[in-house]
Amino acid sequence: MTEQLYRIDAYLQETEATVLAVNDQGGIVLDRTPFYASAGGQPGDRGVIHFSGNECPIATTVYDPTDKSRIVHVSAEGAPRPVVGDKIQITLDWPLRHAHMRMHTALHLVCSLVKFPVTGGQIGAIEGRLDFDIEDAGAVDKDQLTADLMALVAANHAVTERWITDAELEANPGLIRTMSVKPPMGSGKVRLVLIGENGSVDMQPCGGTHVKSTGEIGTVAITKIEKKGKINRRIRVAFA
Question: What global pTM score does this model have?
Answer without folding.
Answer: 0.91
